[in-house]
Design goal:
It is a single chain. This protein has 8 helices and 6 strands. By secondary structure, the chain is an alpha+beta fold. The protein has a domain at 79-257: Muramoyl-pentapeptide Carboxypeptidase, domain 2 (2-Layer Sandwich). Strands 3-4-6-5 form a 4-stranded antiparallel beta sheet. It has a two-stranded antiparallel sheet with strand order 1-2. Strand 1 and strand 2 (104-107) form a beta hairpin. Helix 3 packs across helix 4. The longest helix is centred in the N-terminal third of the chain and has 53 residues, at 2-54. The radius of gyration is 28 Å and the shape is elongated. Bound molecules: zinc ion. The site of zinc ion has 4 residues, from strand 4.
């Protein structure tokens, strides 16, 4: 009897020790997981607000990289809608997801969409080609300087020449081409809108996720002269709504936030 009680006591002691060690390790694991999931969710929030502050309406201040103050549910988090215009600079450190195709560098999603659009256009007897897509800030600087040089004789000050140049060529850091989501089609031709290719794009581009970014009737809003050749990838769903409601990107972002 004495031996059995002793064995039982020993067994209970070992059992209690094993259980407490297990509980200790389990609580360590749970604490570890909680800390990590908290960190992940903080990082996600930071990423999303970086995009949403960049995509905020033109009336709000330029992206600062700080956490967005937009109320929950109103922030636009779709990276396809990244707004880069005269008062929305490309977010600092923004890394476009580029691939090299058709002799240009372009955003991966835009490239896949263009491939489909190009095939559909070709089967309708329409020939499309990309003359320019992604442009680095250095390249944009070069183009902007060339544009200023072209006007400098007609203007009394550099500031005036710059202001005029800006209507045709965006300042470095303020060009949509730096996102990789924009492309110029079939050369930069003012009469592109008289071609069958333009006609085809007017009817079908939205079904592949592209919109005419600087339309004639939106120059006051975009602050960019009408560019029949410049198309922007925004995703099919967005492009179709923009086309149907005749909204340029600035207006569409306002519309989404209301
Ligand atoms: Zn362009």
């Amino acid at each position: 009897m004495g031996n059995r009680r002793k064995r039982l006591k020993n067994f209970l002691f070992v059992f209690a020790a094993v259980v407490s060690i297990f509980v200790f390790f389990a609580s360590c694991v749970i604490t570890f997981l909680e800390v990590y999931s908290y960190r992940d969710s903080r990082e996600e929030t930071a990423n999303v607000s970086a995009v949403s502050s960049a995509a905020a309406s033109p009336s709000s201040s330029p992206p600062s990289g700080k956490v967005s103050s937009a109320a929950a549910g109103t922030a636009v988090t779709d990276e396809n809608l990244l707004l880069v215009n005269y008062d929305h600079k490309l977010p600092d450190g923004y890394q476009p997801d580029l691939i090299s195709v058709y002799g240009v560098q372009i955003n991966r999603r835009a490239a896949a969409a263009y491939e489909k659009m190009n095939a559909a256009a070709a089967s309708a007897g329409v020939s499309l080609w990309i003359s320019s897509a992604y442009r680095s800030s250095e390249k944009q600087e070069e183009l902007f300087q060339e544009e200023i040089d072209g006007y400098s004789k007609s203007y009394s000050s550099v500031g005036e020449a710059e202001a005029y140049a800006e209507k045709s060529v965006a300042r470095p850091g303020y060009s949509e081409h730096a996102t990789g989501l924009a492309m110029d089609l079939n050369g930069v031709r003012d009469d592109f809108d008289t071609t069958p290719a333009f006609q085809w794009l007017s009817e079908h581009a939205q079904d592949y996720g592209f919109v005419l970014r600087y339309p004639k009737d939106k120059q006051e809003i975009t602050k960019i002269k009408y560019e029949p050749w410049h198309y922007r990838y925004v995703g099919v769903e967005n492009a179709q709504v923009m086309k149907k409601k005749n909204l340029c990107l600035e207006e569409y972002l306002d519309f989404l936030q209301k």
